[in-house]
Structure formats: C-alpha cells, structure tokens
Design a protein that fits this description.
heterodimer; A: alpha/beta; Aldehyde Dehydrogenase, Chain A, domain 1; Aldehyde Dehydrogenase, Chain A, domain 2; 2 domains; 6-stranded mixed beta sheet; 16% strand; B: 299 residues; alpha/beta; 8-stranded parallel beta sheet; globular
C-alpha cells in the first residue's frame, strides 16, 4: 500500500472548501428513463361534464418543458363562460346521480381511481417530470405513490363518515372550487379531489398553468373509470380562471394551495359571502439542529428538507438554525454533501435536483440570489455541471445572514438554504417563530424529551423530528399564521368538506 | 495525538442511516460506468479462504485464481489480496511472488479472539514472520460490550506494534455489537489505536457486513479524516455475493468519502463468491450474454 502522503497528493478536492473529492475517478453514465411510451397530445381541451370540450373563446396557451425550454403541448384557456359551464355541470352531478348513489359506491369509485393510477404510475411519473421539471426519482418514488395512497385512504372513509364525526350526520357542501399549485401537480390534485369526493361533493379543479398535463391525463383516467359525468371537472388557465372559480356564485367551498399573496386576495374576495374555504399557503420552515443531534443523519435531513423538488415545497426547511458548538462541523459536512448532488435532466434516474419549474420562477430565485449577496450573505454553491439549456440552479447555501435579511424572511421557493446559529434552545425557538409563516419546522436531537419540549413551543402546523418532508395520508397538514387556514389530510381533511 | 473520551457516545439515528442507504441504492449504474465499477470491485477483493479444512493445495489454487481470475477476458485486474490463516501464509506468499497481490492473514485467535493477549500477539508475529503483508485482527467484543474501552484500545495498539510494517485491519465484528452507536465507538477506538483499515466482520457471525453498518463506519472514517487528515481504509466482509451489491457499496463509498478512497489501498471487499459474479457480469457487459457458471473456476 502506498503511504498517506502520496495518496493525498494524488487527488484534488472538488472545491477549496471541501477536503474531499467527489467528482473524479468514477462518474455515473447517463441513466435516462424511457419516456417515449407516455403519449402527449398536441393540444388539450377542458374536461367538463365528463367530456373534453373546446374553450368558448378558442384560446390556448403553450406549456414548456423547463428542462429543455421546448414546448410540449398546449392547454385551453377557460374563461368565465367555461367556468360557469363547469360549475353547472358539477351542480347537476351533485343534485343528481352523485347524491343518489350510496357512500359505499362512492368509495368504490375512489378505490378504482387509486388502482388505475397505480397501474399507470410510471406514465404519470414521466409526464410529471417532463412538464414540471422534477427528478424522476421523486415523481416515481414520492409523488405518484402518494397520489395513490391519498385516494386509497379517502376511499376507505367514504362509507364510514359517521364514525369520523360521531353524533353528526355528515353532509357535503356541494360544489367545491379547487385551485392547485405547480410544485406537486398531481399530488395536490389528490389532496383536493380525494376528500371532496369521499364526502360526497363534486369539484371544479384548476391546475396551475405551467403544470396542467397530469391533471388532464387524470381527466382521461376519470373518463375511463366510469365516474358519473360532472363529478370531476378540470378547467385550465391562469390566475383569471382561478378568480372566476373563486367568485362564482354557485361554488360552495373554495380550496386553494399556493402563495400567501394570492391566498390573501382570495380571502378578501370571499369575505362577506357564505362560502367556506381552506387555504394552504407559503412557508419558511426552520430546522433546529442541536449539539446532541446525530449529525450525519441531520445533514441528510437538511438535504431532504430544502433540495427536495428543487426547493419548490411550501413546507421546505429553508432556514437552518444550528447550535453554535456544532455549526462549523454541520456546515462543512453540508458543503461536502452538496457536491454529491446531481443537477440536471429530470428524466435521468440519477438526478437529485431537476429544473426550476418555469422561467418566471427561475428569475425569482435568481433575484433572491442577487439580493442575498447585496445583503452581505456569503454564498456557497456546489461546483456541479448544469445543462446549458433549461432552468437550472445549483444548490445554494447562504451563511452570514440574520433575521433582518429578506432572504431569511421571505419564501424563495428554490434550492436556497439560509444558515444561522443559536446558543440556547430558547433562542433557537424564538428565531424559528420569528416569521409571518408557520407551516413546518424540524428538530434534530438525540433526546426525546427535547423534541416534545421544543416542538410544543414552535408555532407551526407540522413539526418533524429527526426527519423532514415526510407525508402520509393519515396525517393532517396545514399552517399557523400566514401559512394558511384549515387542514388537509387525515380526518381533519374530511372535516374541511363537511357542513358544520 | 489527543484521544476522544470513548465513554461519550456519538448518536447515530438508525432510521436515518437506513434511509440514506436506500437512497444511495437508487443510483442507476449503466454502461461504461458499470464496466468500470465491476473491474474496480474485482481489484478490491480480498480473495478469502478461512476454513478448518484449508490445505496448501486449496490455497495454491486460490492464489492461481487471484493472479488470473478468468483466462478468456483480457485486461482484467488481479484481486487485491489473498486472505488465509497464519499457517497458510508461507504457501500463499510463495505462490503470489512477483504478482503484486498481497497476502493477508487473520490473526489474534480469529474469529473469537478468546485467547490471552500474549498468544494473540504471538499469532500476529508468526503471520508477519511468515510473510503476511496485512493482518486482520479481531477486537475483544466481550470487553467492548463490558465497557472496557481502554482495554480494547490497548490491545489494538499492542497488535499494531506486533505487526511491524504489515498493515493492520481491525475487525469489529459488527454483528455482535448490536447498535450503530457501538459500531461507531468501536470504529473510533480502532482508528485512534492505529488501525490502517477497519473491517466489519469475520464472516463467521451473522449478520456479517451490511450496507448501513458500512455507511456508519465510512462516516466514522470521514470524521477521523476531517479531524486528523489521516485516511483510514474500509473493508466490509461477509455476505457480499453479487456484483450488484458490490456496486452499491462502491456508490456508498464514492458519495461518502469520494474518489480518494476508490482504490484497493483504501477499500476492500472480504469475499469469496463475489469474484465469480463480477466476472460473469463483466462477460455479460462485453458480450451481451451470460455465460454458464461452468465457465468460471470455483477456486
């Protein structure tokens, strides 16, 4: 064996900050997921009353693959007239067949949808990655399995609602208007549609304009499964279409997931009406790493918290708060770990971080990167190669930042983590809570009692302990403060679709 | 050098370790990178026979296979070392002369280590005098579980001294340590006491090497490197039978410690049946077909 010195001279650390070299000697060859089998039409219409119909004004808008900037298809733009038609179809289904069939039959439809989604899981995963830029590893292993899991879970509740709400006769609201975001297109659809249908409502759903593809593929699946016409209606379009849904007089309940700004607009427009609403909005999740935490696993948790789905996660752990005694060690390890993240083609099975969802979001994140520098933050980015085309951003750390910086206060919604330190638990909790948001936080410590003590003082809808970004249909999800109103998931998610 | 307080436990989260391994297992290794990995794994093997029935004849055949793993495949690397009991060291040494392949020997009353220290040191010295380039020792697991960390440390240091110029691999026998925290602590003790390599198992206890245990040990090696600048090698042993598993291990090494560890000086597989599966996969990659097992020698 050669001695240590000659060996050390023989390799180059990836970056001056890292002692370890993750780039040379052995590189992974491309491992592309086959995508040819997943059919994409040139144009998609609106799904209203069980049929695909042309938009009344005949306008379509293009949808691009953010990894290649190529147009992949176009979607119909639903105007006020189309939304009205969709709401009428939903009302008709609600007053008609959907209310007459038994709860058990309702459940069967949901089971059927879940099974059909599982059968076509790979197709949906591929399309989700093509349209939205997320790595196939995530759409295949996280998004689509969870979509099926949510449908299965709520299918089970359909004929057991009286056990969920003892002493009450649970009644649906009627027509639900649902508006979903672009970060988890099909999963957010499942979060919205599954509980609404399980409780006997009908829906008009609008996917985000940059990621409507899987929603329309889902509409095809709905047609195939024989669900009564009008129970699920899908209309595509931008903010204006959403606004038509929110303000339609015959919508009984609005469910929205998206930015806090839009959430506030919706809340204002619903004020004074008797429409019910749930809002699932932004976040700026904090992760507290204590000195007694399992450090290597905590670093892995941080990676999952902020670089999952390019950081396009409302509950992303975008603020790292690390106790001073282990701060240097955690930051060093984090920097080395960043070097092993593979950024690139979302359809490559080895990709860890895919494309930023849209040009608009790409510009927003870049604006925050500039802002961070202006505010005096130290920037660290991994040295990985990124493709020439498409919207890609290297995983980024901001150190030397404080609570007063905008990059610490505002939701960036990209692969950007801010790093601060704290000395005592109280200081850590105070910093975690010192934000208008309160969606999700994380705690890392080896001590169980500390998890509960710290967790109970954090003003946050979700607290993860020694892990992050774990989702389960049985668990309620939602925010404190400006992160939202109401809960989705679990039994709490049923309550949001039942008359009080 | 300042030693850490071995009574302090470094917390390891079992769920987190397993999640990390499962994520690393999702790496898809294809085409050129696969051929490279298969050859790299072959070059890292400690081709091993540790049976009561081992004879010079058996060891000689093992050595011949080590020198020429497969006659029909050009450009194959040799394995890294042949690993035998001390009595067989001289046989192997003679057979491997000029090949660059090391002779490794288990010593210290392998596999249990249940002999007085003086005898274990004699065992080690004998193997070294017979020509062993590398010594695979076992730690006193009983003493470790009893909390006698200083004793375990001193014994390793004593064996290291007895090794002279031979490299020392310290077998933790992780299957008898039960928790990842214990594995981590035993790794730290071994590295501070002078181990050149840390090794999971004797192969005589089940479970032998697992990927989560290996990850915990690699992270211990990384921390030791951060703290001291010294690179320690890693050897999972026992239970690694397929090329697929071997490639998964290489991915874990690559993404935990990086390129500097991806060679036989810093990473080894202790295995016997792995060699043939690697050869079979190399043939498959080169020809597109699987050959019958009969085409691979069983030595």
């Amino acid at each position: 064996m050669s001695n240590t010195e000659t060996k050390e001279a023989a390799y180059k650390p990836t970056s001056p900050n890292s002692k370890l070299d993750f780039a040379s000697v052995w590189e992974y060859a491309p491992a592309p997921q086959d995508s040819k089998f997943a059919e994409v039409k040139e144009q998609y219409d609106l799904f209203i009353g069980g049929k695909f119909v042309k938009p009344s004004k005949g306008r379509y808008f293009k949808s691009t693959n953010p990894a290649t900037e190529e147009v992949i298809t176009e979607f119909a733009e639903a105007t006020q007239k189309d939304v009205d038609k969709a709401v009428k179809a939903a009302r008709k289904a609600f007053e008609g067949e959907w209310s007459r069939i038994s709860a058990k039959e309702r459940g069967k439809y949901l089971y059927r949808i879940a099974r059909m989604l599982q059968e076509r899981a790979r197709e949906f995963a591929v399309l989700e990655s093509m349209d939205g830029g997320k790595p196939i590893r995530e759409s295949r292993d996280v998004d689509i399995p969870l979509v099926a899991a949510y449908f299965f879970y709520y299918a089970g509740w359909a004929d057991k609602l009286e056990y969920a709400f003892p002493g009450k006769k649970p009644e649906p609201y009627g027509v639900c208007g649902q508006i979903i975001p672009w970060n988890f297109p099909l999963l957010m659809l499942a979060w919205k549609i599954a509980p609404a249908l399980a409780t006997g409502n009908t829906v008009v759903l609008k996917p985000a304009e940059t990621t409507s593809l899987t929603a329309l593929k889902f509409a095809e699946l709905v047609k195939d499964c024989g669900l009564p016409d009008g129970v699920i209606n899908i209309v595509t379009g931008a903010g204006q279409t959403g606004s038509e849904i929110v303000n339609h007089k015959d919508v009984d309940k609005v469910a929205f997931t998206g930015s806090t700004n839009v959430g506030k607009i919706i809340q204002k427009s619903l004020a004074g009406t008797d429409k019910k609403y749930t809002l699932e909005l932004g976040g700026k999740g904090a992760m507290l790493i204590f000195e007694d935490a399992p450090i290597d696993q905590a670093v892995e948790g941080i990676i999952n918290a902020i670089y999952f789905n390019q950081g396009h996660v409302c509950c992303a752990g975008s603020r790292l708060l690390v106790q001073e005694g282990v701060a240097d060690k955690v930051i060093q390890k984090l920097k080395d770990r960043l070097e092993t993240l593979i950024v690139g083609d979302p359809l490559d099975k080895n990709t860890d971080i895919g494309a930023i969802n849209s040009k608009e979001q790409f510009e927003t994140v870049n604006k925050y990167l500039e802002l961070g520098v202006e505010e005096g933050a130290e920037v660290y980015q991994s040295k990985c190669n990124i493709p020439d085309n498409g919207y890609f951003i290297r995983p980024t750390l901001f150190t030397n930042v404080s609570q007063s910086n905008r990059v610490v206060q505002e939701e960036i919604f990209g692969p950007v983590l801010t790093v601060q330190t704290f000395r005592t638990a109280d200081e850590g909790i105070e910093k975690a809570n010192n934000t208008p948001y309160g969606l999700a936080n994380g705690v890392w410590t080896d001590k169980g009692s500390k998890i509960f003590k710290v967790g109970s003082k954090m003003r946050s809808g979700v607290i993860w302990a020694n892990t992050y970004n774990k989702f389960d249909p049985t668990s309620p999800f939602g925010g404190y403060k400006e992160s939202g109103v109401g809960r989705e998931g679990g039994m709490h998610g049923l309550a949001a679709y039942i008359k009080n | 050098m300042k030693y850490p307080d071995f009574n302090q436990t470094i917390p390891i989260d079992e769920v987190g370790v397993e999640e990390r391994v499962s994520r690393l297992n999702k790496r898809s290794i294809k085409k050129d990178s696969k051929i490279q990995a298969l050859k790299m794994a072959l070059s890292m093997i400690d081709h091993t026979t540790l049976e009561g029935s081992d004879s010079p004849g058996k060891v000689i055949q093992l050595c011949k296979k080590a020198r020429q793993p497969h006659p029909a495949i050009p450009d194959l690397p040799t394995v890294a070392a042949v690993c035998v009991y001390p009595r067989m060291v001289s046989v192997a040494k003679k057979e491997l002369k000029g090949s660059g392949i090391h002779v490794a020997s288990v010593a210290t009353a392998f596999p249990s280590g249940q002999a007085p220290l003086s005898q274990r040191l004699e065992d080690t010295k004998f193997a070294v005098e017979e020509g062993a380039d590398e010594i695979d020792m076992v730690i006193s697991r009983g003493a470790f579980l009893n909390g006698e960390f200083q004793l375990v440390f001193d014994e390793i240091a004593a064996v290291k001294e007895a090794c002279g110029d031979a490299h020392l691999k310290v077998i933790l026998e992780t299957g008898e340590l039960h928790t990842f925290e214990n594995v981590r602590k035993a790794s730290d003790i071994a590295m501070h006491a002078g181990a050149d390599f840390i090794k999971t198992s004797t192969g005589k206890v089940s479970p032998a090497a697992t990927q989560p245990v290996t990850l915990v040990m690699l992270e211990a090696i990384r921390d030791f490197y951060y703290d001291t600048g010294k690179m320690i090698g890693m050897k999972p042993a026992g239970g690694i039978r397929t090329a697929k598993q071997a490639i998964q291990y290489l991915v874990i090494v690559k993404e935990t410690l990086g390129a500097a560890w991806l060679n036989k000086d810093y990473f080894r597989f202790g295995a016997s049946s792995l060699t043939n599966d690697l050869l079979m996969q190399i043939v498959k990659q080169q020809t597109g077909h699987y050959q019958s097992l009969d085409y691979f020698s069983n030595d």
